[in-house]
Specification:
InterPro entries: MFS_dom (IPR020846), MFS_sugar_transport-like (IPR005828), MFS_trans_sf (IPR036259), STP/PLT_plant (IPR045262), Sugar/inositol_transpt (IPR003663), Sugar_transporter_CS (IPR005829)
Structural class: mainly alpha
Main location: membrane
Membrane topology: Multi-pass membrane protein
Radius of gyration: 23 Å
Organism: Urochloa decumbens
Pfam family, one: Sugar_tr
């Protein structure tokens, strides 16, 4: 499409918004250069999820010192650790609605403001009530806004050929946040009890300010702009996030066609996924909600938050040694997440999910058997550590990063933000149930019993993936209804 045609279609402001087409072609002709701007934007958006996981996982080690400093009971620690997942529901259910009205970028800025306020409140807390209030504030910003809107933004700004990588970036940053929280636990564990855990949380006050400032310089999602009728601005963003002007024109044409079809055939409510007779929409909704249930039901988040208790159950005594091992967990997660990211656009979503769910099932069962057998010994500790690392590796290569990608790309445009809100709500509610009941459940059915239960849930997830999930690699976002009609 020429610039003259764009002016005719979108208005006289186009020459002011777009550089000439020639500026987007490589010097001397030849193949276009691979676009990097979308990668930069997706990276910056994903950094919000790093702060989410840092604040959530920090409790893994900080609880050892908070318990001693504030004289909290086991029940209070259990509630404090898992409550953030429940508090997130307050904003998760409204995040999609807000992102559709204010835009994806604006909601990400709001998320970082809540993260800063929550970290500050947590670091200054002096009672159980104050810490619960801090977890509530952090929960609103981190998962309610950050975890819902980041995958929406990354998916909508990506090309089909790189969508798997770019939409998986948030998983990389989630796990960077996990690793940083473990490092913080270890680094400040030697400080006085009343000071160390406060510095752990205080370290999370400044980064949200810097990330929010960077997000303000990002473009808005082109699909959100097109939904608002701002086609010239949407095309300007697509030019910056595509390899060639022709690709940008094609992407805009597909988006406009999808919007036109929606206005002709659909109502604008998420309940259309449930109430209308479209088999593909019902299947999409079932896939989103079921996957978001199975991910936390695998029990990996219980390992992430209660790994010190697991290692102590195997016989480890030193807090310092326990916190050192947790850093290895964070490093393993990042390494295998990177492997998964490199494979998702090469091998597809479905093979990674099948390999990951099978791996978690086997390794979780091995962990349970290790804790069942024999008295505490050095051998048992080593096998327990190896089993935990194997669980984390199996989970990270597919389960941890493919589900966000898969769910964000299969939902239709007008329902993407709201539909993901529903999925994340199920995810966080299940996660809260797992993390807030782990200690009590371990008392009731033993810790090995917990892990056998989680292995059974993951085996069920393998069956669901095998039976119900089609492959989406290389598909246009606007083509998913056809795929799920098969």
């Amino acid at each position: 499409m020429s610039q003259q045609a764009l002016v005719s279609a979108y208005g006289a402001e186009v020459p002011l918004l777009f550089p000439s087409s020639a500026a987007w072609l490589p010097a001397g002709g030849g193949a276009p250069r691979r676009n990097r701007f979308a990668f930069v934007c997706a990276t910056l958006a994903s950094m919000t999820t790093m702060l989410h996981s840092y604040n959530l996982t920090l409790m893994s080690g900080a609880q050892l010192f908070i318990r001693e400093d504030l004289s909290l009971s086991d029940v209070q620690i259990e509630v404090l650790t898992g409550s953030m997942n429940v508090f997130m529901l307050v904003s998760i259910l409204g995040a999609g609605w807000l992102a559709d009205r204010l835009g994806r970028r604006c909601v990400l800025v709001i998320a970082n403001a809540f993260l800063m306020a929550g970290a500050l409140t947590m670091s200054l807390g002096s009672s159980f009530v104050t810490l619960m209030a801090a977890r509530f504030i952090t929960g609103i910003g981190s998962s309610g806004f950050g975890r819902v809107v980041t995958p929406v933004y990354n998916t909508e700004i990506s090309q089909a050929s790189t969508r798997g990588v770019l939409s998986s970036l948030l998983n990389i940053f989630i796990n960077i946040g996990v690793l940083l929280s473990y490092v913080s636990n270890y680094a400040f564990s030697g400080l006085p009890v009343h000071l160390g855990w406060r510095i752990m949380y205080g370290a999370g006050v400044i980064p949200p300010v810097l990330i929010a400032a960077g997000i303000l310089f990002m473009p808005e999602s082109p699909r959100w702009l097109a939904m608002r009728g701002r086609h010239a601005e949407a095309h300007a963003v697509l030019l910056r996030t595509s390899d060639t002007p022709a690709e940008a024109d094609l992407r805009l044409s597909e988006i406009r066609q999808a919007i036109a079809q929606w206005h002709q055939q659909e109502a604008g409510s998420v309940w259309q996924l449930i109430l209308r007779r479209s088999t593909s929409r019902r299947r999409i909704l079932i896939c989103v909600l079921t996957l978001d249930f199975f991910v936390p039901a695998s029990g990996v988040e219980a390992i992430r938050l209660y790994s010190p208790l697991i290692f102590k159950a195997a016989g480890m005594k030193s807090n310092s040694a326990v916190l050192g091992i947790t850093m290895a967990i964070g490093a393993i997660k990042i390494c295998f997440i990177l492997v998964g990211v490199l494979c998702t656009d090469r091998f597809g979503r479905r093979p990674l999910l099948l390999a990951s769910t099978a791996g978690v099932t086997v390794t979780m069962a091995c962990l349970a058997m290790t804790l069942c057998i024999g008295a505490a010994s050095a051998t048992k500790i080593v096998i327990c550590i190896a089993s935990v690392l194997a669980v984390v590796a199996s989970y990270s290569i597919g389960y941890a990063m493919v589900v966000n990608t898969y769910n964000s790309e299969i939902l239709p445009l007008h329902l993407r933000a709201t539909g993901l809100s529903m999925g994340v709500a199920v995810n966080r509610l299940t996660s809260g149930l797992v993390t807030m009941t782990f200690i009590s459940l371990a008392d009731a059915i033993t810790m090995p019993g917990c892990f056998f239960l989680y292995a059974g849930m993951t085996a069920a997830a393998f069956v669901f993936v095998y039976a119900r999930l089609p492959e989406t690699k290389g598909r246009s976002l606007e083509d998913m209804d056809v795929l799920f009609d098969k």
